Amino acid sequence: MLDEYTCHLDKAKQQREYYRERCLLSKELFQTHDLNQTERGQVCTMDMTQMYSFDFAQQIHYPHHAQEVGPLFFKTPRKCQAFGVCAEGAGEQVFYLVDEAEEVGKGANTVVSLLHHFFEHWGNGEKDAVLQMDNCARQNKNNTMIRYGMWRIMTGRHRSIEFSLMEAGHTKFSPDWHFGLWKMKWRHSTAETLDEVAESVRRSSRNGHNIPQLINDAERPVSFYDWTSFFEAFFKKLPSISKFHHFRMSEESPGVVFVKAYRSSAEKPINILKKGQQLPNVDTLPSVITPKGLDAARQWYLYDEIRPFCRDTSDSLQSCPKPVCPKPRVKIDPEKRKCPKKFASPEM
Description:
Helices cover 28% and strands 20% of the residues. The protein is of the alpha/beta class.
């Protein structure tokens, strides 16, 4: 047992050192190329390597008040997901704020869609990228994410991409630091709309290192795509994906993923491109996933239960507007409301 624990710590230390080395290299290259003066969102224009890390934060609720209204604590205000992509070289993190009416889940399609938007609008234009993520299989460490990296290589959006993961249970990294800065500011903030939530992100960093990004932003709108179905026609599943912590791919070997368990392990090439398949046109994207929005019951709950606690109690309040759909009637089955026999009162 002790030997296994020692081995686990050695592996965690090994992966942590690799992450730190990559971060330092990204910062040095960022300063050398003076990327603060370049336009964001360029694709494959700079001959260098940059590292990005990404993760979800715990969702927040709004309206939110610095002085918490007592009864509101026991209710469920409007939900907002926060997904962060950190540019390690610049020390900046883009916060994707996803309202519950705009979300399509927290699976692979959502993560890849947000990451794709980041590269298209916020990337530094590097030719080689290293992406650091945690070990969550449902969100990050899955075939859709690996296929997305290969798709970017084969469509000329990157020259090489490496996915790197730290040992499970030892995954604290830069996104958590940026989330922590925001949460300290959030505790003392009052926000009743999504725009005010975004403003709390902007004010959480004095030097502008925390950048909010809304889904329906006028300049950089975000779309969610069905990447999982799109890749099924071109790529095979990567076998034993959970055993590996490094996945590398490059334009020199299209369709081949070089995997290894840990930093010091030997690389193993695996071809994931289906035989006889060619990727579609570079500009072809998957079908768009349309968010379902809020159902009638949720809309009326926000209007009836949450709106009274807001400073702005008008029917046009963005977070709790008056629904245009009819209020659903709750049907109660009298049979289901009967008390079970073991709890029934004894007959007199």
